[in-house]
Write a structure and sequence with these properties.
The protein is of the alpha/beta class and 338 residues long. The protein has helices spanning 38-46, 64-71, 92-104, 130-142, 152-160, 198-209, 213-222, 234-261, 283-293, 312-325, 329-336, and strands at residues 3-7, 11-18, 21-28, 31-35, 50-54, 57-61, 80-81, 84-85, 112-118, 145-151, 168-173, 178-184, 187-194, 268-274, 299-305. β9, α4 and β10 (145-151) form a beta-alpha-beta unit. The mean pLDDT is 89.
Length: 338
């Protein structure tokens, strides 16, 4: 049975089909380092906490890292930055390997198909994604999977535009990057990424307000709503400013790249938006306002936001995997639109 895996900067999410139900499993893509003690190791060994012991240090990985960071008054670290493996984090590969192993487990049979996401190369930063892409492929291959990569924006098209025959534009506002894919009947026409996402917003707000980035992230995820006219609170006001700036920047960059690609004019294109950064209430309205103001080479017929922005990309990887493994896109369209 094929699987899907969304390898995100903030969250890694696995998707698998069991009969007529889809199972989604999530882990935070972060870790925290604490000093080793026999007592601490015994407590961790009795719990379900994901961790690695190395020399005199213990690395708590995944969701529990946030709790331990608060208890020990320290900061979390990330295996990935700006959508790819962090070159500044020496522990990046073993940490992300542990998270992936926990999420996907071992295949039911050797060579089981799994689709995993990779960002496009960003148009606004000198970042290459090949090393990241091949490292994730190697991790999955060593677990005895048959890994296939899919562009993150294309995964949005598979997940959200089935009713439009997988034709339209998918936009994934992730933590590390924002990915865009324009597709025609399931075939990519143009892909792009910008090296800004939720982490960029959090960092800008932290620098502007003096609060820690973790504090900004917590407020953004738990209580923030986009309200450009009447924001409440210092952090909320700054979040509104930088959310508006991010959306404007993405659409202006998209307009430029579409003109370069000479996309056919006169089309009517639905746009699906997703990703954890698009989760706050009011994001769809902000995006609609900005994209309808833009001078794109085609008409935007509608804007839809995923019902589950955090899980939509993972769902798209699963659709792609199932389509290749055993089913046609037409059958999946029928299933998703029932």
């Amino acid at each position: 049975m094929a699987k899907g895996l969304d390898v995100g900067t903030m969250n890694i999410i696995a998707a698998e089909r069991h009969g007529d139900k889809t199972t989604l499993t999530q882990q935070r893509n972060l870790f925290v380092e604490i000093e080793y003690s026999e007592v601490a190791e015994k407590m961790l060994a009795r719990s379900d906490v994901l961790y690695i012991k190395k020399d005199n240090q213990v690395f708590i990985v995944g969701e529990d890292a946030l709790n331990f960071a608060n208890i020990f008054n320290t900061v979390t670290r990330r295996p990935m930055q700006r959508g790819i493996l962090s070159r500044d984090e020496k522990s990046a590969i073993p940490m992300i390997r542990l998270i992936i192993e926990r999420l996907v487990g071992t295949p039911k049979k050797s060579g089981e198909l799994i689709y995993y996401t990779s960002p496009a190369r960003p148009v606004d930063a000198p970042q290459d994604v090949l090393y990241h892409q091949k490292t994730i492929e190697s991790i999955l291959r060593k677990l005895d999977y048959n890994p296939k990569v899919i562009n993150e924006g294309m995964a949005v098209v598979y997940s959200e535009l089935a009713e439009n025959q997988f034709t339209g534009m998918g936009v994934s506002f992730g933590a590390g990057m924002t990915n865009v894919c324009l597709a025609h009947y399931g075939v990519p026409v143009m892909t792009m990424a910008v090296a800004r996402g939720g982490d960029w917003i959090d960092q800008q707000v932290a620098e502007a307000t003096g609060y820690t980035k973790d504090k900004v992230t917590a407020i953004k995820e738990r209580e923030f709503e986009i309200n450009l006219e009447n924001p409440t609170g210092e952090i909320q006001s700054a979040l509104n400013i930088y959310y508006d700036n991010l959306v404007d920047y993405v659409i202006r960059t998209l307009q430029r790249e579409l003109n370069k690609a000479r996309v056919e004019e006169g089309l009517s294109v639905p746009v699906a938006i997703t990703g954890g950064t698009s989760a706050p209430k009011g994001f769809k309205e902000l995006f609609e306002r900005r994209i309808y103001e833009a001078n794109l080479p085609f008409e935007v017929s509608k804007v839809k936001i995923a019902r589950s922005p955090l899980y939509s990309v993972a769902m798209g990887t699963l659709v792609a995997a199932r389509a290749e493994e055993a089913e046609s896109l037409e059958e999946i369209v029928t299933e998703k639109t029932k």
